[in-house]
Fold this sequence. Notes:
homodimer, alpha/beta, Rossmann fold, five-stranded parallel sheet, kinase activity (chains A, B), transferase (chains A, B), kinase (chains A, B), Cytidylate kinase-like family protein (chains A, B)
Amino acid sequence: MTNNRIVTISRQFGSGGRTVGKQLAAQLGIPCYDQELIERLAEASGFTPEMVAKQQEASPYSSHWAFALSESQFMGTSIQDQLWQLQRQIILDLAEKESCVIVGRCADVILKGHADCLTAFIHAQKDKRAKRIVEVYGETEVAIDKRIRDKDKRRAVYYEFYTGQTWGLAENFHLALDSGELGIDTCVAILADLYQR
Amino acid sequence: MTNNRIVTISRQFGSGGRTVGKQLAAQLGIPCYDQELIERLAEASGFTPEMVAKQQEASPYSSHWAFALSESQFMGTSIQDQLWQLQRQIILDLAEKESCVIVGRCADVILKGHADCLTAFIHAQKDKRAKRIVEVYGETEVAIDKRIRDKDKRRAVYYEFYTGQTWGLAENFHLALDSGELGIDTCVAILADLYQR
């Protein structure tokens, strides 16, 4: 097991978890991996970053479910499963190389037993997430409630499929913080303080 | 809504949540209500404290479930439901009277909209909880795994029956902390700091 110290941040869509990760990394003077993981994954797989992002949003149950139920380590041979294996290796390599913050990508579960991790979950009430999503990503033709519901569902399905754990359960993380109530700066301060202890 | 500030602590059996509550209250110089709530409830109901504790451990589904499915505010007329109403009023009165820490009893949901609350959930991995339970409560004839499983289930059923929320979901709390990984003193420090902000 490496001596590097990793912070993993899982987050609800619109909770500001990515911002927490970026600010935390800046404060600690370590890199933050989020969008960059998609780019590395694209490079390693030969797909475009858009294709990688799209595959990670699709339901793992949409195809090859029969393989998924087998005991095979690779859980079938869908594009998604191949990307999962590549992503897993990229995250393990990162943790081996340096201390860093990793946002999303089930890094908490991938690194279990492989690195010294502080695992966090960032969430917020729906009304605050809706406000933030419109501010950060802008309006779309799809109603905000439906955007949140769809994204929450996709993340939960992806996480549960590849980790076997229920999405959003407090007990799966060292700490879970409501960024809407506590504020993003407070979330960063709590995490920075824990990291430095 | 009262100006008092309340900390509610929900906790997994054996996580040390009660100890977190007591230490936090001592540090903040405010009272902590836990076992004392049982005594107040006993006094108000005419039952013995033992009977009150026992009723709160029984499944709300064990009787009167037909009433529970009705729209009645009182959700049936079982002893448990009557105790729930009394407990609800005792907690509302406490929050009206003074700033305090309240451990368990679904106080987070009862006080929603009635008081300025910081809501916390304290949890820990099963092996650490098992160790703590034996240290604090001693061995019994029942295997430790079964004691944890039974108590977890009872708390979840009670909470879900009376609040309509899923037990242990991160999004139901302002923060959730793993006392086994972070340590009880760190949990107390984080909560005290948030309370004083």
